[in-house]
TrEMBL record:
SUPFAM superfamilies with a match to the protein in the record: GST C-terminal domain-like, Thioredoxin-like
UniProt domain GST N-terminal: residue ranges: 1-83
Similarity section: Belongs to the GST superfamily.
Name of the protein this chain belongs to: Glutathione binding-like protein
GST C-terminal domain ranges (all copies): 86-218
Superkingdom to which the source organism belongs: Bacteria
Pfam families assigned to the protein according to its UniProt record, in alphabetical order: GST_C (PF00043), GST_N (PF02798)
Biological source species: Limnohabitans lacus
InterPro entries registered for this protein in UniProt: Glutathione-S-Trfase_C-like (IPR010987), Glutathione-S-Trfase_C_sf (IPR036282), Glutathione_S-Trfase (IPR040079), Glutathione_S-Trfase_N (IPR004045), GST_C (IPR004046), Thioredoxin-like_sf (IPR036249)
Entries under PROSITE patterns matching the protein: GST_CTER, GST_NTER
Amino acid sequence: MIDLYTAATPNGHKVSIALEELVLPYTLKVLDLSKGEQKRPDFLAICPNGRIPAIVDRAADDFAVFESGACLIYLAEKTGQLMPTDAKGRSRVLQWLMFQMGGIGPMMGQANVFFRYFPEKIQPAIDRYQGESKRLFTVLDSHLKDHEYLAGDYSIADIANWAWVRTHRWSGVEVDDLPHLKRWMDAIRQRPAVLRGIEAPPSRINLTKDGDDAAKKFSEEARKMVEMGQNQSALNKDQP
């Protein structure tokens, strides 16, 4: 049995999708990020970084894994699925996984902060992160022109990238001019395990659209979290 500590975010849904695809039994432990539950001592003992997701493998002496990419690799290697075992095939999957971890996720995350959550509209920052997100989408589109999936067969690389790219509208980036990316997004969205994964847990808002009252409330709560993080950073800098 796997304990999944998570919330309804792209990083959280990466792991719940993988667990559903792998048909691994798991217990969902949802943390309320707005209440700072990810900073509680009991969770920090599992994930020192205080970020979701994290897993605890009860069948492996309660082995804990934090960071979403590390969770995906652990689960793929545990089951021998969603990642090839040969060196080249494994490397291809890891390359596209790192593309998401080092590019898609951070750039879209910063686009969300400055476009949605930051109390001031700093247009150069918005343009920077939306532009870089779109450039990365274009890289995916170019690769997918000649490939059904990112690294051969469907893999954890597809899961990781899709979980973020599906929320492109929330970052203020459109993909209508990227037909190969759209084809790939649509194909993955039709997988039953993926549909189950993005409901574990369900989001309070639909991150694939915009404009309703729930979205506005969500943005306000996220803005408070951003401001709280800024204040904590300032306190840390003042400490000797």
